[in-house]
Specification:
This protein is an alpha+beta fold and about 1000 residues long. Among the domains are: about 210 residues, no CATH class; about 90 residues, no CATH class; about 100 residues, Thrombin, subunit H (Beta Barrel), CATH 2.40.10. The protein has 20 helices and 47 strands. Strand 2 and strand 3 form a beta hairpin. Helix 1 packs across helix 2, helix 7 crosses helix 8 and helix 17 packs across helix 18. InterPro entries: Chondroitin_lyas, Hepar_II_III_C. It is found in: Cell envelope. Its main location: other.
Amino acid sequence: MTNRKTRATYYTPGKVSAARDNVRNYAWAAALRDAAVSKAEAFVALGLDFLWEAVPPQTVPRSYGVNQVLGSPITGREIDKFGNYPYMADIIQEPWKILDPSSGLKFPSNDFDAFYRSGLDEGGMFRRERADRSLLVNSLYPDKGPGWGVDDGLGWIDDSGNVYTFVAYYAHWFVWHGRDSLIEGALTACRDAFLYTGDLRYARAGIVLLDRVADVYPELDIAAYDRAIFLNSDGRKNKGKAIGSIWETFLVKIFIQAYDAFFPVMDDAEVVAYLSAKARQCGLSNPKSSGADIRRNVEEGILLQIYPAVKAAQICGNDGMHQSALALAAVVYDTLPETKEWLDFTFRTGGLAYDPYQVTGGNILNSLISNVDRDGHGNEASPGYNGLWLAMHQLTADILDGYDLYPEADLYKNAKLRKMFSAFPPLLLGERYTLNAGDTAATGNPYIQVRLDDMLKAFDRFGDPLFAQVAYRLNGNRTEGLHLDVFTANPEHIAERVGQVIGELGPLQLESTHLSGYGFTALRDGDASRRTLRNLWLYYGRNTGHGHRDTLNIGVHAFGLDLTPDLGYPEFADFFDMHRAQWVINTISHNAVVVDKSKQQGQWVAEPRHFDPTGQVQLIDVEAPKVYPQTELYRRTTAMIRADGDNSYAVDFFRVKGGRDHHFSFHGPEGPATTEGLSLSAQPSGTYAGADVAYGQRADDKDGSDYNGSGFHYLTRVERDGSPPSGFSVDWQACDTWNVFGGGAAVETDVHVRLTMLTDAAEAALADGIPPQNKPGNPQKLRYLIVHRHGEGLDSLFASVIEPYKGSRFVTSITAAAVRRDGVLVTGSEAAAVKVTLKSGRTDYVVSALDPDIAYTVDDRLHFQGCFGVYAEREGTRDFVYVHDGRLFAPLTDSVPHEAAGAVEGTVVDFTRTLTSHNELLVQTAGESFDPAELTGKTVFVENDGQRNAVYRIVGAAALGDGRFRLDIGDSTLIRAFADERDFAKGYLYDIEAGAALRIPLTRFERA
């Protein structure tokens, strides 16, 4: 064995010295020091004995939820108003007590601290059989009876049989886990205070606490307790040590970092004297009579526990969580052969296996290649959860950056990791929002997923000016205060570099975005400096795991508000929350179409057919063939069309062919919804599932443990029109739910979103959908429109116009326009057109067709041949014409209509086959010759096996002669996975292959 460890290895002396210099030289760094010192002082004041005794052994269970179904024992679900984990505590003045904010009562009602101390043995370990059970009496509220609210650590059962885990909740949130907890909170504060000041008082308190954790940590195992009662963050594995296996990954990193920080001063005479006395008092096998003994205790009790605990899935979280924990342990332990063995395991292909649960490998390289898509997103759909992938893999990269015992693991050279840094800026919407897909954030709240520190690090390391622009925006469009971390030499120099980029390129102005690997499009218009930003987005990516069954879901942001808020994070992201399983993740709760009263099937990503970010008209067209196997077509074509500098409207064509029931669902923001053209009658009782079906009562798909039904029983206060006209509208007046405008939460505004439906339907209905109610600030309800069509061999094309507007409408009329083929009226999904007349005097004809080779007439006055087109005129004179993937859109009176090529077609000759940030396609085109500049900015669609799509933005093009072109597709890799995940030497699998057909749709835009 070789032991190189003569000092701390993660917090190196050089880094610590730089940190102390920075806290002296920079106000922001001094603020970090002062915050850490303030908190550390509070813990130091408790005394070493208090800290020593604060670590409970295994016989006190941990649980993160008192009762996730019942809430408060007094107010029931009223406590949901205070959030998921609402109970409070004063760990210094009232240990082992939690405060119910909904009732003001404290629990448990007995003096658990006295009961706990009565059960401590000579070694300071709690033995339940020794504890004085006469202390288990209600002393706080005697009028409720001697046993009311009494918890001996295993929970209190009320008269109805409901279990409340007060003590376990306290042990979880206020002893072990959380910023203000005795263990995690104190160790973090003492670590930072010591690193920033060098004051040994903080190190002494931290060492005593860490040493005591090491005494008990090997024996901790949450599997000793009934998971049905003691809930933990374990992904239903019933695995973990101090807490559930997922959050355990964060907790152990605190332990490891604390050990690394305190390592150089563990020989301190005061620490040794105190801990050696405790060892003698408690009869511990380790005498703790030297710094070496104390280090050995921590290494044996914590560091050496991590590798077997990871393998046993006791420390096992989302991608990157346990990997970074084990990598950190390996580098801090810094001892061969263990360090290499642990790092080899971290990079070994494997994952979570079942029966029994075990982790067979950290899977880092395989996951980066196979699970991170070409846009840099993980496979969890939710931006919040995918953000954890970046945070955790970045941490592993930092841990191993320059580590000479394992130089082959420089993750910053991995093109996929680099791409992860640029994955989230494209999800920014409007001025203050991020895409709210899957289990993310609250219902329509302003939030930014992108982290300023990540953008500054990426700019510093990679130099891409985009990162500087994003950082500038996140910092309030200023450079003042920008800095790298406290361990960096000259950390504020980054501000000057960011300023140089802004001076050259200007502030961030995001263009329309298409992330075909992730499955997201944002059509953007407006100017951030004029506060006219508006966008329409469409999501078509992962719809499983932390995703929702929401393929082809659309949303609108305008005038500073989210006008179609997704429900966001459920009440509880587990398998017990039926509100989540049957409603929040269901297709009906999103702006999509439900087929045959069932939620969508799972998929990785759908298949885009067209994307065009041309300014006046912007288009996205996506088909999802896998989400409803009984359909032959499930496709959405949506365009955002500029009306003027401040306003745009959207035209939406949702095609569904197959099945016998189609329910189109759309909802607006919190606020009143009014209708035009509908005659609604209130349903006297029940839900949208039926007048005899109560709210939340499962009425369909009753077989099986997984719910695949409609979710209609979560739509309440129903109004129906059984014979709606072919044209009607619903107008939502937005409340400022999240106080964006500063006038108060939920105040009605003059911002609206209006949907006009132009499709024949059997029924139209309005109903209330209920967002998660334990997210403070969430609206109590949202009003949904459901348009129903039914019949055998059903072929539907739901054509609608969506208008966000402020004050008064900028649209005067919306009607369907007749589409004919060879003089015969077209019905069904083949083609449709709408006519939109604006107050400005402009009239737009908007057409969508499936086959660009078929010629149509529109409104008996226009030729159209293409996939999508807009013909705009004023007083009968053409204003502009837009044709995408088509040949013409012109009046019938034109004697010789101008025809243009609709698309470039060809085949793939070759492509970039290595993992790199610079990727190309070598293609052979057919037919006409093209100017390479005409292809730049377009999208190439390559036919492939359908497992994932093969759609890429063309960054640049070069003609090679004889119809060949080199297409630069930037940092979008063509690699799908390793050919053999166990043997990387066998190369890669790709999303395309040589000889595959390709298509590059073109756009013609002409003004009069």
